[in-house]
Design a protein that fits this description.
With 440 residues, the protein is α+β, with helices and mostly antiparallel strands. The chain folds into 2 domains: 3-105 and 239-432, Beta-lactamase (3-Layer(aba) Sandwich); 112-234, Methane Monooxygenase Hydroxylase, Chain G, domain 1 (Up-down Bundle), CATH 1.20.58.710. The chain contains 12 helices and 18 strands. It has helices spanning 3-17, 44-59, 105-118, 161-164, 180-187, 196-204, 221-233, 237-246, 309-320, 333-339, 376-379, 423-432; strands spanning 32-33, 65-72, 75-83, 98-100, 139-144, 150-154, 270-272, 278-280, 283-284, 287-288, 306-308, 324-325, 328-329, 364-366, 371-373, 388-391, 397-401, 406-411. An 8-stranded mixed β-sheet has the order 1-3-2-18-17-16-15-14, sandwiched between helices. Strands 4-11 form a two-stranded antiparallel ribbon. A two-stranded antiparallel ribbon has the order 5-6. A hairpin with a 5-residue loop joins β16 (388-391) and β17. α2 packs antiparallel against α12 and α3 (105-118) crosses α7 (221-233).
Length: 440
């Protein structure tokens, strides 16, 4: 069977099972629409493999619904919806659906930090104790004694701001319960604190996982960044991000909770059960699922925001435009380049990163609140050099490719993604196999 026939056959089956796919691009709140995929270098037939795969994920019941947005040169190539926002009500997944983006909050908080960096409010090699004196007596775990107690030693030095922004400071998170430090994060309910100051106080009582700068472990460091933003500005994190990022970028549906009148647009979040079927999620990391229609007790810079596909695409386009969108400048080109530069020291690049993504190495590193691809071909991927990305706990993902001037935002609502499958990785492969003329 010829390639074109195979694409057509696969697409026909999958799209028939999930008929709510929008086949043509629709304007994304200020982003122009490409006249055709070919006009920006993509092959429309090959893109059907991407569409069919995503439709298949929904049709197989792995997720209730999904949106995907692909843009190049500031023009939307595809903006598709699949499936349902709620299986219970049967509400379709619409383009203005609101999602819990969890850790896709981190890059937004990072941009907030860089705005203050450009104002001279902090420097990368400053000790974090300059802004968080509560951390002046941090201890470091060295092991676990026969009695089960954590053994510790003094931190050799305070973590730096660079380490806070790259998860190399040594803080835990509490998302898992294997590491003794993470167990303490859960026991002390760090992520369930009432306000960021209480989060800092609870964090200060827990030892670091390792000496600052010697390893990489996904952590609560971006929540610490949120507290630093509040302390420097005298504003709440939500107020600062709204004033400095959301409103300037016209991200009108991005906030730490869903505003009155928008509740019906919030997609239901699901989790896979023992049989592989999805059911509505009732808890989050051991605590009851937060009510995202009410202001939270703590505005989490590491995972608290809700947003839409188009809002997040506008944020990504600002990054692609080197800090500017629609005539509004958020950051300088140099600051975007700094965020897109690997800052993990060479001697810790081979350490396990503590997440489900690939182990960091010479090809894939971490910048300031973004994962960055230093050498995509060595990493075994098709995207361009310096691609920036991350994802969220409910399976949302994005990437920003400055080499090919491409952005992609994918939104689902299933805790842990699709049960171990790297949906973002599949989306990358199926996107770039269709980019036949990157010179356009």
């Amino acid at each position: 069977m010829r390639y074109g026939s195979l694409v057509a056959a696969v697409a026909a089956v999958a799209l028939a099972l999930a008929p709510q796919v929008s086949a043509r691009p629709v304007a994304a709140d200020g982003l122009a629409v490409a006249s055709s995929p070919e006009s920006v270098g993509f092959d429309a037939q090959r893109l059907k493999l991407l569409d069919a795969y995503m439709a298949g994920v929904v049709a197989q019941g792995r997720v209730a619904g999904m949106t995907t947005l692909l843009a190049r040169h500031g023009k939307v190539v595809e903006f598709n919806t699949y499936g349902k926002a709620s299986l219970e009500t049967g509400a379709p997944m619409n383009k203005d659906a609101i999602f819990r983006i969890y850790s896709m909050t981190k890059p937004l908080t990072g941009v907030g930090m860089m705005i203050l960096f450009e104002q001279g409010k902090w420097r990368l090699d400053d000790p974090v104790t300059r802004y968080v004196p509560e951390f002046k007596n941090l201890r470091v775990m060295t092991g676990v004694g026969p009695d089960g107690r954590i053994m510790t030693e003094d931190a050799k030095r305070p973590p730096t701001m660079r380490e806070i922004m790259s998860h190399t400071a040594g803080f835990g998170y509490g998302l898992g319960d294997v590491n003794p430090v993470d167990k303490l994060y859960r026991e002390k309910k760090v992520l369930a604190s009432v306000g960021l100051h209480q989060m800092i106080e609870r964090t200060a009582e827990i030892p670091l996982m390792f000496q600052p700068g010697t390893n990489w472990s996904y952590s609560s460091a971006v929540d610490i960044q949120g507290y630093i933003i509040e302390k420097i500005t005298g504003m709440t994190l939500g107020e600062f991000l709204d004033k400095s990022v959301f409103k300037p970028l016209k991200m009108n549906d991005t906030a730490f909770y869903v505003a009155p009148g928008k509740e019906g647009r919030l997609a239901t979040v699901y989790v896979g059960d023992k049989t592989g079927k999805i059911a509505e999620a009732k808890d989050l990391f051991g605590s009851p699922m937060p009510d995202y229609t009410k202001p939270p007790a703590m505005e989490s810079g590491g995972g608290g925001l809700t947003s839409t596909t188009t809002d997040y695409a506008r944020f990504c386009q600002m990054i692609l435009n080197k800090g500017e969108l629609d005539g509004v400048r958020i950051l300088s080109p140099a600051s975007i380049e700094l965020m897109d530069t690997n800052v993990i020291p060479h001697n810790v690049l081979v350490s396990s990163n503590g997440t489900s993504v690939a182990r960091f190495n010479e090809a894939v590193g971490f910048g300031l609140d973004f994962m960055v691809v230093n050498d995509p071909r060595a990493a075994g991927t098709l995207e361009g050099k310096n691609t920036m990305s991350w994802g969220g706990a409910a399976g949302t993902w994005f990437w920003i490719d400055p080499t090919n001037d491409v952005l992609f935002v994918g939104m689902i609502q299933r805790m842990g993604g699709t049960g171990g499958e790297d949906l973002g990785g599949q989306a990358r492969t199926l996107t770039y196999q269709a980019l036949l003329h990157p010179e356009k």
